[in-house]
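Work Package 3 (structural annotation) set out to generate three-dimensional models for the target panel prioritized at the project kickoff. During this period the team completed the workflow that converts sequence records into C-alpha cells, so that structures can be stored uniformly alongside our sequence database. As a representative example, we reproduce one entry of 385 residues exactly as it appears in the project archive.
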Amino acid sequence: MHKAIAFSAILLFATALAAAREISLVPVVAGLDTPVAITHAGDLSGRLFVTLQAGRVAIVEGGAVRPEPFLDIRNIVLAGGERGLLSIAFHPAYGSNGRFFVNYTAAGSGDTVITEYRVSSADPNRADPASRREILRIAQPFSNHNGGQLQFGPDGNLYIGMGDGGSGGDPGDRAQNLSTLLGKMLRIDVDGALPYAIPPDNPFASTPGARPEIWALGLRNPWRFSFDRVTGELFIADVGQSAREEVNHQPASSGGGENYGWRRMEGTLCFNPSSGCNDGSLTLPILEYGRELGCSITGGYRYRGWVHPSLRGVYFYGDFCSGRIWGAEFDGRAWSSEVLLSTARTITTFGEDEAGEIYVTGFDGTLYRIEAKSGERRRAVRRAG
C-alpha cells in the first residue's frame, strides 16, 4: 500500500480508464481575493467557507458570496508569498459550541499561529472577534514552507500540517528532528485542557526530547491534506524540492509515527544523502510525479458524494503550476492515477461540502464545483428524486 507508483506506469494505466473519467469545472462564484482553502462548518447550513490569504474568510451561500466576511483578521496577518491566513477548521460540535480554529502567519514576527474563535451569538454569519484565544505559536526561520492546513480527524483531534521552516533543502534538517514542530503533522486535543492537551496515544508523547504534539514527520511543505470521510484514511500532498511532487498516505488503523522521508528522500529519490538514504524505516509515497507535469502539488479530497457515481472513491489532486487535475484510485493492491483535466488555472486548494461534493479554486478567484459529465448527473438526480 505504501509502494510508490512510477508515473510512467500511472499514465499507461490511465489510457485504460480515460473513457470512464470525464470531469468538468462548473463555476459557482467569482471574484474571490486569493483563495487558499475551502471547507464547511458541518452544521447542516449548506454554507461553504473560503479562506482568503490576506486575512478574511468569505461565506458562499446559495450561489453567491455574502457581502460581509465571516471573519476579518487582516490587521494581525502577514500575507504574501506562502504566508497569510491559510485555513480554517470547525470543531466537530460547531453546531452546538460555535468553536472554530484558524492558522495564520502573524504580522511582525512571521510566526505560525493557531487561534480559536467562536461564532457571534447574534449573527451565525459573523465570528466574534473578542473570542480570540491563541493556542499555539511556532517560530518560522524563513518565509516559505508554512504548510497551513487544519483538519479535525475522525478521532476528534485537531491535525496541523507544518512545513520544514523554509529556505531550500531543509538546511536545518528540521523535518527529521523530533525536537521541533517543523516538517511534521501535529495532533492535539483542543477539548482536554487549556490551551490544548496531548492525546496520550500520540506516538512520541513519552519519547525524551521529542515534541509530544508530533503525529508524523519527514514533510517538506504539506500543502493540503484531508481525511476520507468514509474510511478515515489520511492523504497528505507534499510539495517537492526540484524533482518530485508526492502524495503520502496513512491508513485509518495507523498509530502515527510515520516518517515520510524528507530531507533524506524527495519522493522515491534520495536527496540528502544522495544514495543509501532509505534504511527501511521510511514510508514512501503512494503517488508521485516529476517536474515535466507540474512543480507544486495541491492536495485534494476523495470523492464521497452521491451526485456522480462514477467518481466515488476517486482521490482528486492538482498542481499549482501546470493546472492539471488528477484522479487516483486504489485497486486493493496499488494506487494508480490519471490526468482528468488540464486547465490554465493556478490551483491553490480543493475542498468539500457537507454532502461530499468537491470544489476547487485558485488565484483566478473563481470557485468551481467538480462534476462528471452532465448526462450522469441528470441520471443520478432522477434516481434520487
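The helical segments are 7-17, 94-97, 374-384.
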